[in-house]
Structures are given as C-alpha cells and as structure tokens.
Write a structure and sequence with these properties.
The complex is a heterodimer of chains A (about 110) and B (about 110).
Chain A (H helix, E strand, L loop, with lengths): L2 E3 L4 E5 L4 E3 L2 E3 L5 E7 L5 E7 L5 E3 L5 E5 L4 E6 L8 E9 L5 E4 L3 E6 L1
Chain B lengths: L3 E4 L2 E4 L5 E7 L5 E8 L3 E8 L6 E2 L7 E3 L5 E6 L8 E8 L8 E2 L3 E5 L1
Parallel strand pairs in B: 2-11
Antiparallel strand pairs in B: 1-3, 3-8, 4-5, 4-9, 5-6, 7-8, 9-10, 9-11
The chains are: A mainly beta (about 110), B mainly beta (about 110).
Amino acid sequence: AQSVTQPDIHITVSEGASLELRCNYSYGATPYLFWYVQSPGQGLQLLLKYFSGDTLVQGIKGFEAEFKRSQSSFNLRKPSVHWSDAAEYFCAVGLTGGGNKLTFGTGTQLKVEL
Amino acid sequence: NAGVTQTPKFRVLKTGQSMTLLCAQDMNHEYMYWYRQDPGMGLRLIHYSVGEGTTAKGEVPDGYNVSRLKKQNFLLGLESAAPSQTSVYFCASIRETGFSEAFFGQGTRLTVV
C-alpha cells in the first residue's frame, strides 16, 4: 500500500523568506502526486499536481514542487512567503484504478511571522 | 457553480444518537469520497463511490455507512455515534476520466459527547 510522510509537523518562517515543505512517498510505481492547502475552517484546495513529464511543476499562488524519483520525494517550495500563506499543507499520493483514491500525509502547519 | 456542498456544517451528538451527513456535487462527477480529519493524522478515507448505486470501504469504515442513490449525492451515516467519531468530515469528488483534481467540501465539524 502506498504511504506519504511529511516529516515536519510545524514550520515557522518570516514573511519574505523562502519555504520548502518536505514530502516523501512510498509506492511501487511512479505515482500521481499532489499538494493541497487548507486554510483555517476551510476545505482543501489543490496547489499543484504531478502526473508525468517535467519533474518541476508550477502551481497556484507562486508555489512549485519538484519530483525526485531517486529520493521518492515531492517537496513544495516558494521563493518568498506571504503572510496569507499561513495554512496547513498536505501532500497526497493517488492510486489509479479501484476508485482513484488519495492517500494523504499528516500535514505541515505553516506559520508566517511578520 | 456551487461545487461540493456539505450539510450540516456543525453538529453535536450524544453518544448513541444517529445522524446523516449529506454531500452534494453539481459537477457531474462519477467518484465521490468521505474522509475524516483528525489532528496529526491527516485525512483518512472512510468510504467511497465510483458511481451511482456503488459504494466501497476505505481505510477507516467501521461505524459508518454510506449510500449513493443519486449521482450527485453521497450520504454518510452514523448509526450509533461514539466519542471516537468526533472529527471533521470532508466530502470530495473527482471526474472519472484520468486522475484529475479532487474538489472538497467545506467540512462538517462533528462532536460526540
């Protein structure tokens, strides 16, 4: 079965600083990979996804992620964080067939200091 | 478009009571899902459906039942609520074709006392 690990439970960065959120996955083949963001009291919104092709994918709100097969990683990055980026971020792996189910990591809570 | 709508948004139940959470989507999506979100555990799949009239168990199905009588609606039932079912519940839907974006509802915060 596939699994997703987000090793950082909480991260605090200063506004304007760069950000990297880590995600490692376990899956037998090249997976479908996603990053979602959840603002307080809200549902999840898709930031970006990787299916195949270019390993550096661009998403909304200035986020990008890089797929590294050798490290089984899909880390999320942003060059300059804004206070409005404070939220919880979830990495997810998609398993095709049998319902296209998503397996989520435990999430990383991002705090932005002004 | 409303997207995915969950009702109710908040609910407090007493142990042993029953309730049904409703999820409605207006995007004509085939696949629908119910997740629960607990602190430090991310989202875990309870049940899912790959089309009208179908349901299947996810990772944590015990204590829950579901029904998909209409394509646009996916109901989650708790027959006898327990404090361990205190959680935030999210519904999501996906198109059948490919592995496209999952659209999520705003969530239902359920407390069982």
